[in-house]
Amino acid sequence: HQITKGLIAVREDEYKLIHDLKTKRSLLFNLEKDPAEQQNLIEEEPGVGSRLLSLIQENLTIANKKIAGGQ
């Protein structure tokens, strides 16, 4: 079965993006300034959010191709 639901996270430098595959909602945090992950920066840092979401989507595509048997 392909990966179509659940939460996926990626971290780059001080930023962490958490993406919900089912709702398509993303949360972005600056872990240096907000280690408790209380302030969602997805609206304030759209470039960072887009870049990290692209990483998730690219890797998810690769994983789903492998699951389907098409390396």
Task: Specify the biggest β-sheet.
Answer: 3 strands, antiparallel
**Beta-strand residue fraction:** 15-25%
Question: What's the order of the H and E elements?
Answer: EEEH
Radius of gyration, rounded?
A: 13 Å
* Cross-sheet strand order for the largest sheet: 1-2-3
Poorly predicted sequence stretches spanning 5 or more consecutive residues: none
Number of helices: 1
Q: What would you call the quaternary organization?
A: single chain
Structural class: alpha+beta
Q: Tell me, rounded to a whole number, the average pLDDT.
A: 96
Describe it for me?
- The chain has 71 residues and is of the alpha+beta class.
- It has one helix spanning 46-68, and strands spanning 7-12, 15-20, 26-30.
- The chain has a three-stranded antiparallel sheet with strand order 1-2-3, covered by helices on one side.
- A hairpin with a 5-residue loop joins strand 2 (15-20) and strand 3.
- The longest helix is centred in the C-terminal third of the chain and has 23 residues, at 46-68.
- 8% of the residues are buried.
- The model has no long low-confidence stretch (mean pLDDT 96).
